[in-house]
Each structure stands twice: as C-alpha cells, then as structure tokens.
Specification:
Length: 194
Amino acid sequence: MSGRPRSFDPEEVLSKAMLTFWRHGYDATGLSQLEAETGLGRQSLYAAFGDKRALFLAAVDHYFKTVIEPGFVAVLDAPGSGLHNVLSVLQGWETVALAPDFSGCLIGNSVAEMGRRDELMAQVLQRKFELMEAALERALKRARQAGEVPRGLNPKVTAQSLLAMAQGLAVLARVRSDPAVVRNVVTSAKALLK
C-alpha cells in the first residue's frame, strides 16, 4: 500500500502545499509535485483535503492565517500608534520584497493567475483583500484620530492605494529585485501618509 498512514500533521501538510502553490502557482503545481512536497500519496491528500482545488483553497486560508494575520493584520491592529503600525508594515514590505527567495503574495499571485476564470476563487481571494484593506483602514483611522496624519486623509482610499502598491510591488519584485526600485515604491507609499 502506498502513502503514509493518517498520522500526519495537517498543519504541516498545509504549510508544504501552501509553499508549493506560492512558488509555482496553481496551474503549474501538479499532483505528483504536491505528493513529493507533502510526503503524502494522492489518496491521503484527497482523503484529508479533497481534490487539488480544495487543497489550494485550504492552503490560501492557511497562508492568510500564518502569514498575513501575524505579519500584516496583527501589526496594524497592535496597540499604540496607528501611523507607527502602518510604517512598520511598509518597512516589512521592503525587507520581504528584497529577500532572495521572494515569491510575491500568494493571494495576489492567485488573483492574477485565476481570478477572472473562477468565480468562487475570485470571491475567496477578494475577501482576503478586503480583510487586508480593512486592517489598513483601521490603523489609518486611529492615526487620523491621534493627529498623526493629516485630518483630510481618507483612510479607506489610502488603505486601497497602499494595498494596490503592495500588490504591485509584490509582482514587480518577483522579476526585478532592484533595491532602489523597491525603496522608491515604499517611499512613495509613505508619502501618501503626509
């Protein structure tokens, strides 16, 4: 009998599947590659997660829970200065975008790859963007209330603009990891807060 017994850690398997989809994209990731990366046979993967699409959706949720929530949402929602929290996220973008193994944003990559051709997938990915935007908006509202940014700053529009810049930077940095370009984008993002 091939495959491992059901004594695997589902979180570990999701992490490995997530990294595989994140590096290669949905279409380019084959089942045999998922088997090799997770260490599970096809039957075990199907039994635990469903088909490739269901595994991908679980991997996107896992990405949001393990990457976006702690590194983005929790930073923005941390107590203290809303402006400081936003600036911390922007600085994080620069650091991550210049990492040698940077693979962009799994959510943004997936929207570009399959957002228009898969209605359910588009809704799931859109919801993740909405949660990210809402976290930025909350921090910007706190910053405005504290007088850290101009009173005329529109938190919703600024949050949308920052998220668009982050996603654009994630795409650009995958093919052009030029520190000057990355720094210029982050500097431009910070300028929206003045």
